[in-house]
Q: What sequence folds into this?
């Protein structure tokens, strides 16, 4: 039953995310796919039912589509709660349409509503896992490609190469290393990315702001890559 429901959600949301313009790829379907995978990995380690966590991950950025249609411009990777608020109504419609109600319904909606919060003080583990899975996608080589394009407003490598190679860790690492090298060559870009991108992302690690301990071990390699990227730009 859960597999069937998941397939129904997938069929609804995938076309919607693919409506986003190509230059919004870092909030689009590739990102959502990764958040779903991250949610599943974290929930398994935390011994939490992965089904509602994956559903929440599929729905969490539906508000980005509404925002893009309304404003024709993107919004911050962190700190802006508007897209999360806008995701609530379409998520509720999807859950109602496939017959999810009760505690699952309430917990998934709360998770979607708070996923962009810097901190979450509640007890909803689905919300904690979604927030961590979403934030994690700003770490590592793929995270560097996402955040550098957003914060610096330009693509340093072929966007199609990123999208085509997103499931190829070696290729993504090559593209991220190339991007980092190009940023380093421009002192102004380097300074801006350090201040608005890498340092902000690494605060989640440095200040232990992830809600699940699994993140620090499960994604240690991505954390290390981002830390070394910061050092590379600093020195």
A:
């Amino acid at each position: 039953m859960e597999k069937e429901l998941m397939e129904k959600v997938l069929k609804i949301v995938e076309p919607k995310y693919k409506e986003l313009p190509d230059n919004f790829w870092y909030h689009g379907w590739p990102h959502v796919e990764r958040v779903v995978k991250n949610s599943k990995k974290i929930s398994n380690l935390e011994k939490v039912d992965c089904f509602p966590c994956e559903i929440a991950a599929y729905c969490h950025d539906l508000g980005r589509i509404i925002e893009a249609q309304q404003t024709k411009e993107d919004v911050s990777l962190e700190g802006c709660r508007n897209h999360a608020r806008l995701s609530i109504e379409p998520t509720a419609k999807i859950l109602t349409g496939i017959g999810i109600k009760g505690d699952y319904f309430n917990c998934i909606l709360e998770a979607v509503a708070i996923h962009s919060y810097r901190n979450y003080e509640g007890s909803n583990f689905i919300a904690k896992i979604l927030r961590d899975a979403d934030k994690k996608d700003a770490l590592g080589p793929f995270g560097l490609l996402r955040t550098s394009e957003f914060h610096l407003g330009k693509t340093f490598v072929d966007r199609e190469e990123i999208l085509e190679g997103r499931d190829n860790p070696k290729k993504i690492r090559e593209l991220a290393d190339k991007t980092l090298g190009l940023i380093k060559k421009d002192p102004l870009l380097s300074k801006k990315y350090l201040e608005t991108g890498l340092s902000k992302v690494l605060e989640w690690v440095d200040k232990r702001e992830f809600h699940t301990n699994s993140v620090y071990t499960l994604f240690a390699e991505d954390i290390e890559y981002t830390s070394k990227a910061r050092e590379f730009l600093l020195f």
